[in-house]
Amino acid sequence: MKLFVPALLSMTTFASLPAFSQKLKNADKTAITAIQSHVNYLADDKLQGRRAGTPGEQLAADYITRQFTAIGLAPRGENGFLQPFSIDDGKEYGESSFLFIDGHEIPKDQFFVHPLSPEKAVEEMPSIALKEAGMPWFLDLAEEKQLNSGNPHFDLDADIISKAKAAAARGATGLIVFNDSEYVFNGKQKGETLPIPVLYVGKKTSDAYFADETTPVEIKFKTAFREKQRTGNNVIGYIDNGAPLTIVIGAHYDHLGYGEDGNSLMRTGAPQIHNGADDNASGTAALIELARMIKAKKDKSKAANYLFIAFSGEELGLFGSKYFVEHPTVPLNSIHYMINMDMVGRLNPTTRGITIGGYGTSPAWEKSMEGLPAGKFLAVKYDSSGTGPSDHTSFYRKDIPVLFFFTGTHADYHKPSDDADKLNAEGEYRIVQFIYQLIQHTPNTGKLAFLKTREQSTGTSTRFSVTLGIMPDYAYAGNGVHVDGVSEGRPAEKAGIQTGDVITRLGDFATPSVEEYMKALGKFKKGDKTTVTYKRGETEHEATVEF
Ligand SMILES: [Zn+2]
Q: Would you identify the CATH topology of the domain 10-90+230-441?
């Protein structure tokens, strides 16, 4: 889950809250112990941070499947309880690319192929100093940086791309870049294919072979890529009461692994396991215990079915929930409403503050939450927006009323220190009780009315200080940034950009992906004016925006 700032409507002040331990029956204590043990297992180092598409995720999926089975849920995935979906992991050059210099094969860790390179084979005898047509050319990156040291907006990769294009226009058959240890391979980089291959050669190799710029060197290389895919799995269990309406209860169970996808907030040191006890082993534990309570429910009113979904791929950009709403295993129009729990394990024992998002997505919510017994143990704050950095957003976008439960961010968020021993299991149980009571209290006599709400502003991340006020679609595979939502009164809305548009340029900067878009945002400051180029359908548009 990404950080966000909810608009708050305070309901209860904590001073008047009754003591927690009040009225805890044995059944309650059993549930609290169960919650803690689910989190202990899911956040154990053995699961290596449950990164989507890894063995650690698989261990977690097996655990949830065992729990769902023991509770008596029916499988409602595409493969038993599982609903697999593929994750585009970019490309890799390792297997089929090679480089020989003066007949010596260069080890794979001493060169890489720029991800936008075309697949080509070249064999020539160029001199580094000469820029001859029909030959590969060379570019010293340390010199390049030196030459541009006065330019605060200098972007090494963009410079390499423009140099490659210029060299190709003058007949070069490749561009070999060297002499900069910070330049790394990014298999997820997207954009136009370059006219010629670009290879980066490591310092050890360039020192060994490129020292004498006048003597020709024998260069032989082949550039080829393999698409890297991972498969994530949603885990889906069902209570089929044969009813027309289905209530969806969800929580993501994936987390960051060792932070390989660049979403860790730990900026220093060797990669470590991000255990994700609160994010979101806690929500997964709540999901399992809610399934147990609902399955055990005495009143067998068959007024609704219940679908329990443990999503994967949430940390990558809501991949699992987006996949589900595009490939629903129950008819989407039979979904009554969706309840999402993401980080419900760190209720502050003093303030008891919990935020409930989505309050504005149905007029029915106010009544549903009135006078719930468990509510008296909690200081509930509401956020009306149906969107936010978690899986309920995927359902809201399908005009389904949603609620989102969140006990707030903390110092361990997206760090290896988000561990099971910091869980407030009793506090979490009170939230589970609240949700259970809310479900009992919400009528099943007809689909809940849906209301559109304002788009949640995504807040400003550390790397840029201004935004357009759009919700980027992280799962979009095309070229450009697909707009998932537009915030009111922000630059994008003022410029006429709409949901569904694809942004391809910001000023001078191409935005082939969300990453490049965020890099481009970093080039602007408050008050700056620039142009934004976007596609609506096949038509390209340009508008002026002011940050
Ligand atoms: Zn999360």
A: Aminopeptidase (3.40.630)
